[in-house]
Design brief:
By secondary structure, the protein is mainly alpha-helical. It has one domain. Helix content is 87%, strand content 0%. It has 4 helices and no strands. It has helices spanning 3-29, 35-71, 74-101, 110-143.
């Protein structure tokens, strides 16, 4: 078995578990915090989430490129493209939404929270698809042994 493929699966599985938790539990709770405490909550959310997500996302990005270099297959390229898409979605959609929510004067905004939850389904599904593709690659690799 390829150590690079296995490493991709481990990191992506962690991120898939995390994104499903965020999608089903964490983001929907934002509206329950209330206006008075929302700014402090959102700052804590941003700092805490950054600590837990940045290293795995960087690892996933690097491992995605490494997998393409090692495997040079259609599925490894698709997995890399999904990783790049996830970075683009995060930078162009989620960072600005969190920036608006982080505004101390008017951060508590139910419409922005609804957009956050709805649009995060795309990241949730793309990360899940990436894990499925990597798992398929592993199945194919082990069936050829």
């Amino acid at each position: 078995m390829s150590l690079i493929l296995f490493s991709n699966i481990l990191v992506t599985a962690f991120l898939v578990g995390l994104i499903w938790f965020v999608q089903i539990v964490h983001y929907p709770i934002f509206k329950e915090v209330g206006k008075q405490n929302f700014h402090q909550f959102h700052v804590a959310h941003t700092v805490s989430t950054g600590k837990i997500v940045i290293l795995p996302m960087l690892l996933e990005l690097g491992l995605s490129f490494w997998l393409v270099w090692e495997e040079q297959s259609f599925f490894s390229i698709i997995a890399l493209l999904i990783t790049i898409l996830l970075w683009i979605l995060t930078a162009w959609i989620f960072v600005p939404l969190h920036g608006k929510l982080g505004d101390k004067a008017k951060g508590y905004d139910l419409e922005i929270m609804k957009k956050l939850v709805f649009r995060n389904w795309f990241r949730t599904l793309f990360w899940s698809l990436r894990l499925i593709i990597l798992s398929y690659m592993l199945i194919q690799m082990t069936s050829n042994l």
